[in-house]
Amino acid sequence: MQALYAQLLVGLINGSFYALLSLGLAVIFGMLNIINFAHGALYMMGAFVAYFLLNLGGINYWWALLFAPIIVGIFGMILERTMLKFLTGLDHLYGLLLTFGIALIVQGVFQNYFGSSGLPYSIPDQLKGGMNLGFMFLPIYRGWVVIFSLVVCLATWFLIEKTRLGANLRAATENPTLVRAFGINVPRMITLTYGLGVGLAALAGVLSAPINQVRPLMGADLIIVVFAVVVIGGMGSIMGSIITGFALGVIEGLTKYFYPEASNTVVFVLMVLVLLVKPTGLTGRAA
Amino acid sequence: MTALTDDTLPMSPRAMRDEMIVFAVMALLLASVPFSGIYPFFVMQALCFALLACAFNLLIGYGGLLSFGHAMFMGTAGYCSAHALKVWALPPELGILVGIAAAFGLSLITGYISIRRQGIYFSMITLALSQLLYFIYLQAPFTHGEDGIQGIPQGHMFGVLDLSKPTVLYYVVLVGFLAGFLLIYRIINSPFGEVLKSIRENEPRAISLGYRTDQYKFLAFVLSGTLAGFAGALKVFVAQNASLTDVHWSMSGEVVLMTLVGGLGTVFGPVVGAFAIIAMQQYLAGFGQWVTVIQGSIFVICVLTFRRGVVGEVAHYFRRSL
Amino acid sequence: MKKSIASLLLGTALAVTAAGAAFAQDKTVKIGALSDQSGLYADLGGPGSTLAAQMAVEDSGLAAKGWKIDIISGDHQNKPDIGTAIARQWFDVDKVDIIVDVPNSGVALAVNNVVKEKNGVYINSGAATSDLTNAQCSPNTVHWTYDTYMLAHTTGQALVKAGGDTWFFLTADYAFGAALERDTTAVITANGGKVVGGVKHPLNTPDFSSFLLQAQASKAKIIGLANAGGDTTNTIKQAAEFGIVKGGQKLAALLLFLTDVKAIGLETAQGLNFTETFYWDMNDQTRAFSKRFSEKMKSGAMPTMVQAGVYAGVRHYLKALDALGGNPHDGIKVVEKMKSMPTEDELFGKGEIQPNGRTIHNAYLFEVKKPSESKGPWDFYKLVGTVPGDQAFTPLSESKCALLKK
């Protein structure tokens, strides 16, 4: 049983990353109508920024949690202003292709300078070690990742669903022209939204650095799983993507315990099943 | 929303003649490669990718469906052909058939699942399906996981053509490519191809005209996947191995890039794009991962400024369809 | 893919007939160093292996005798298809005579086929699989440094005899992991131990937590790590995080390199037992070589046994060419000559190449020092024991190599 709980924990951790990333994708898709293929690369940049902050600037993990999303978020906003902006009105697929290109560039540059194996980023001293909970051994850092991501996800949900800013945002998604008529600067809102979505990815990157090491390709494969998560959950609702993210992590963890051979594929198999039963995804609206 | 590709001029006798001339020039140039001193291995590889890109183009350029998992057909056919040649010791022509049949079967299944959604969802689903397949091949015993299937015997095609001779192999690959190319050309210009284009331009209208668009899209998907499988089966003879590289998403991305560079929805674009990208990889290989960066930059530049691709721009300039 | 690292224009056009020879001898050689240049095995092979080959060429003194020796290097990215494509092009277009290094057993076996087909020379130092000189041996291949049989019969055997009789394997899912698990399992069962389970992980895995949890749940006394390079260092670090060693299980790093210990750090690595065939701090000669090597490395790293093996292999190859008086560009002929000469160099001492291509030299059991015992940045190992070459490697009587059936 101990192994089952431990695998569930590992699943929850992966679920946290799925949730943070698919949440960011959903936020961006809502505003920009773009599937951000560069999301994985920006997640990786978050981890690298944390690594640089520590090794070049002596800035520790806690500040990196704050600064890395801001820095990467700004980078994202620059991308939006200089490139993505020009895709307005074109087929959605061009957004996918453009961000795929951006992902290749970012990953290639990092791979050139840092190879493809990982750079170590150690767990902050305050979260080192583990607790024996009786039914399992809990490495403290991993517990922290789950709780912190949950908090961030809920805060994002609150921001978008319950605040005035969020209300404007949702309105702009539904009808940009009308919102503009109310005197709201829609282009700036789009830029900020992209920054927010990207910042969430970078935050996930910082959280993941001590667990997964800092690697140029750390986001490349992850993003495909997240795409499957998005297809399963549908991109209709913020809460939907959070719940789907965590749930799929847990399912993956269970698979690792009961049938480890399928743990890589279970998310994709679920995606196929959902598509066969409910093509719009569990919470999605019709496209 | 503008469509992915520009409206091509309606098929006229003149356009047909232009295309035939270009095709003849292309075939002649390719046929003369063994006498030119160019490393034939490189050209053969480019031909396989060109065929793959043409098959991919059939789906995106004429069906408007962006598959981000087309490597799965190439890789599946590659594995199955390789297995048939090496383990079952089948002759080359049957080995190729096994590969094509496998890709056909796979495209039936994946097509059934993925055409349930459109636009970016379709792309994400094909990507996810190809990743699913990647993991299956990683674990399946017959693919030998990371090691791949190595040292595949090339054998004698129809019992007479010794494929281990580079020149013989080259012409076999070339004939395979030209045959595939002509088939795709035929499909594009058939009534089926015309319906497909009309669906790409305006699906609701096609539906209102009584076309069951899902069936057309499904058929396009299966044709495209099967032809991609043919490319994969040919590639087995060139590379003499079948490996995970061919089913990885980055390979799917490369196919998209080739077609985009050459020109989505143009007849010759994917061929030009495939040769350009393969040549770039070949000659810039010394720059390590910068190749990835350059590829990414080409994506960005193409999408931002150059959406018609090389052939598309040329055709547009001369107001011809190519 | 190919980069002319060092165009060592050795001597001028002295390709004149050697005294006494009846025909002009070709004295040009092209060496291809094929390795993982940027991935998880880049530190143990990679650029350091190219450097080692270069040093071997310089130290051979053949330049003064009118030889012209070029070295090119390539990055196989741990993919067999890329490795074979590079090898094929090297033989076809670049006219390479010999391929050296090639870590990653999957790539190594694939390249083995190409070298045989093109009748080149193949001195493998980086790959572990014992199949290179066993079931898949080739008349063109020499395997230096180490193999899975050796690792199993040194580290594995020592651990079983010390009471570690139940094992759980964490195995890299490709040719190398499979071979190492197979050879070690044979040793475990032969010594009365038992394998209670195992799990395969993909090459280059960042997070081993779920695999480690499976190992923990198995209650095996020994968790055998049939992986290498970055994978091994990650496993060991994360095992510490999950309190596995504290819980009473022992990790057996079946293959550990100097650079791995550096990456893990002595704090976590201390006390690990493993086997290598070369360590920089063995004697004056190894220290002198390693000092020269380290000064030329960008990172200042000491040579690993793989890099040392590349050096020794190239030295021996050039000795054979020198004895032949010229380069016949005939792989089988050169390898036969290499096998007929005893090996001797500063790094591995005296040895021989067996008819199946296996180079025989001593192997050493080491233990990682405690941080308090380490006196310098690369002072990591304590010598525990020496295993003579004939006991460490596959006896010819057990080898299934077809070359032996003549």
Could you walk me through the main structural features you see in this protein, from its secondary elements to its overall organization?
Chain A: This is Branched-chain amino acid ABC transporter permease. Chain A: Keywords: Amino-acid transport, Cell membrane, Membrane, Transmembrane, Transmembrane helix, Transport. Chain A: It comes from Bradyrhizobium cytisi. Chain A: It is a multi-pass membrane protein. Chain A: It is found in: Cell membrane. With 287 residues, chain A is mainly α. Chain A has a single domain, classed as Orthogonal Bundle (ABC transporter involved in vitamin B12 uptake, BtuC). Chain A is built from 11 helices and 2 strands. Chain A has a two-stranded antiparallel ribbon with strand order 1-2. The longest helix of chain A is centred in the N-terminal third of the chain and has 31 residues. In chain A, 56% of the residues are buried. With 322 residues, chain B is mostly helical. Chain B has one domain: ABC transporter involved in vitamin B12 uptake, BtuC (Orthogonal Bundle), CATH 1.10.3470. Chain B has a two-stranded antiparallel sheet with strand order 1-2. In chain B, α2 packs parallel to α6, α10 packs across α12 and α10 runs parallel beside α13. The radius of gyration of chain B is 19 Å and the shape is globular. The two termini of chain B are 24 Å apart. In chain B, 57% of the residues are buried. Chain C has 406 residues and is α/β, with parallel strands linked by helices. Chain C folds into 2 domains: 223 residues, Response regulator (Rossmann fold); 163 residues, Rossmann fold. Helix content of chain C is 38%, strand content 20%. Chain C is built from 13 helices and 16 strands. Chain C has a 6-stranded mixed β-sheet with strand order 1-3-2-4-5-6, sandwiched between helices. In chain C, strands 8-7-9-10 form a 4-stranded parallel β-sheet, sandwiched between helices. In chain C, β2, α1 and β3 form a beta-alpha-beta unit. In chain C, α2 runs parallel beside α3 and α4 runs parallel beside α5. The two termini of chain C are 39 Å apart. Chains in contact: A-B, A-C, B-C.
Give the secondary structure arrangement, pairings included.
The complex is a heterotrimer of chains A (about 290), B (about 325) and C (about 400).
Chain A: H1 2-32, H2 39-57, H3 61-82, H4 92-114, E1 130-132, E2 137-139, H5 140-162, H6 164-174, H7 176-181, H8 186-212, H9 222-233, H10 238-258, H11 266-277
Antiparallel strand pairs in A: 1-2
Chain B: H1 13-31, H2 40-63, H3 71-86, H4 92-114, H5 119-139, E1 156-157, E2 161-162, H6 166-188, H7 191-201, H8 203-208, H9 213-239, H10 249-262, H11 269-283, H12 290-305, H13 309-318
Antiparallel strand pairs in B: 1-2
Chain C: E1 3-6, E2 28-35, H1 46-60, E3 68-75, H2 80-92, E4 98-101, H3 105-118, E5 121-124, E6 141-143, H4 148-161, E7 166-172, H5 175-190, E8 194-201, H6 209-218, E9 222-226, H7 229-241, E10 250-253, H8 258-264, H9 266-269, E11 273-276, H10 284-296, H11 305-324, H12 331-340, E12 343-345, E13 349-353, E14 359-360, E15 363-368, E16 381-387, H13 389-392
Parallel strand pairs in C: 2-3, 2-4, 4-5, 5-6, 7-8, 7-9, 9-10
Antiparallel strand pairs in C: 1-3, 11-15, 12-13, 13-14, 15-16
Helix pairs in contact in C: 1-11, 2-3, 4-5, 7-8, 11-12
